[in-house]
Amino acid sequence: MKRAIYPGSFDPVTFGHLDIIKRSSRLFDEIVVGVLNNSSKNALFSIDERVNMIKELTKDMPNVKVDSFEGLLVDYAKQIDATVVIRGLRAVTDFEYELQIAQVNHVELPELETIFLTTSLNYSYLSSTVVREFASYGGDISRFVPAEIVPLVEEKYKVK
Ligand code: ADP
């Protein structure tokens, strides 16, 4: 049984994330989408909101589970018995940071391998930050996130 973890902030989840989830679910027996509960980051959505959004969008993918975690990824990976970390690579700008993190994790836990999936061309510009910024100025985000997510993001900026 090969269990892989796909960690991230997912604030909010985008078509880019969903593409990585779908593609990696074909490569491993089980994918755990690990939503990072990072208290130092000022998140738009609460951890429960983020977990629930991804659960709803992946409900038809039987080998995809969604969970949240705090602290070190290596500790969480050990805890859930995951041997692979999935990360998405969009552009060269992602590379240096991702390489460092992967190497640190590998030193900490040598049996944990990080695997990078290159982004699909049509999502290479897409990040949660872009979505939040666009939405904060009243932009149309329906090209970036699933239809169910659009009103949830818009609602956040209405009350702010
Ligand atoms: P972001 O806020 O930049 O979207 P996350 O922490 O939520 O970042 O990202 C989690 C993982 O998903 C990272 O490995 C990131 O590189 C990857 N990812 C994010 N957006 C995309 C995309 N458009 N295509 C492929 N991978 C992506």
Structure description:
This protein is α/β, with parallel strands linked by helices. It has a single domain (3-121), classed as Rossmann fold. It has six helices and five strands; from the N terminus they run E-H-E-H-E-H-E-H-E-H-H. The protein has a five-stranded parallel β-sheet, sandwiched between helices. The longest helix is centred in the middle third of the chain and has 17 residues, at 92-108. Bound molecules: adenosine-5'-diphosphate (ADP). Adenosine-5'-diphosphate (ADP) is lined by residues 8-10, 14, 16-17, 20, 87-88, 90, 94, 119, 123, 126-129. The site of adenosine-5'-diphosphate has 17 residues, from helix 1, strand 4 and helix 5.
Instruction: Outline the low-pLDDT stretches.
Output: none
Overall, the morphology is globular
Query: Which class of secondary structure composition applies to the elements?
Result: alpha/beta
Q: For the record, what is the CATH homologous superfamily label?
A: HUPs
Largest sheet: 5 strands, parallel
Rg, please?
A: 15 Å
N/C terminus separation:
45 Å
Q: What is the helix fraction of residues, given as a range?
A: 40-55%
* Average of per-residue pLDDT values: 94
CATH-scheme architecture: 3-Layer(aba) Sandwich
- The CATH class is identified as Alpha Beta
For this structure, the CATH topology is: Rossmann fold
Order of helix and strand elements from N to C terminus: EHEHEHEHEHH
Give the beta-strand count: 5
- Ligands and ions found: adenosine-5'-diphosphate
Strand content: 15-25%
Number of helices: 6
